[in-house]
Amino acid sequence: MTTKPFTLIALPFMALAACSTAVIPAGEDVCGASALQDLVDQPADRLSSMRFVAPMRILRPDSAATTDNRPERINIAVDNRGIITGVTCG
Question: Fewest Cβ atoms closer than 10 Å to its Cβ: which of 29, 31, 58, 60?
Answer without folding.
Answer: 29
